[in-house]
Amino acid sequence: MFAFALALHLASSALPTARACDDGDDATASTGEKKSCPLPDPATTAALPAGGTHVALAVTGMKCGGCANEVHASLMGVDGVLGAQVVLDTGAVNVAYDPKKVSTDKLLAAVASSGEFQAKLAKN
To answer: Any bridge partners for residue 54, and if so which?
Structure first.
C-alpha cells in the first residue's frame, strides 16, 4: 500500500499544472504563499507556419507562463503576423509574418506595448 501511495504521489507531482510566479506580486494576504501562474498555452509554444518571413526576437522580462501568453497574444494581434512561438525559459520568440503588412519595428513595438517586456532582434 505504501509503495502504491508513493508512486501515486510522485506521478501527480510531476504533472505540469502551474509554476510559482516570480513577478514581485508573490504573496497573498491570507496565506502568504506564492500565487500560481499558468504555464504557456499550447498555442504559445506551437510550431510556426512554414510560410511568410521568419524573424527571431530576444525578449526580456518574461517570468511566467502568463508573461509568455501575453507576449504571444500581443504579436498575434498585429495584422500581418502569421504565427508566433514563445520559449519562456530562453526568452526566444520566433515570428512568421508578412513583410508587406508589418515591419520588424512594429513587431518589437507590439512586444514592448505592455511596458513589462523589452524586445530586440536576436543575433544569429
So the answer is: 96
> Which candidate, 6, 102, 114, places its Cα nearest to that of 60?
114
Q: CATH number for the domain including 30?
A: 3.30.70.100
> Hey, which residues does 95 pair with through a beta bridge?
55, 84
Considering its fold, how many domains does the chain have in total? 1
Residues 71 and 117: their CA atoms lie apart, in Å, by 8
| Predicted pLDDT of residue 123 | 79
pLDDT digits (tens, 9 = 90+) for 59-110: 999 999 999 999 999 999 999 999 999 999 999 999 999 999 999 999 999 9
Give me the pLDDT at residue 32, please. Answer: 56
Question: Cα(104)–Cα(90) distance, rounded to whole angstroms?
Answer: 20
Q: Using an 8 Å Cβ cutoff, are 121 and 103 in contact?
A: no
Helix (H, G, I), strand (E, B) or coil at 9: helix
- 13-21 long-range CB contacts below 8 Å, 24 or more apart? 18/65, 19/64, 19/65, 21/63, 21/64, 21/66
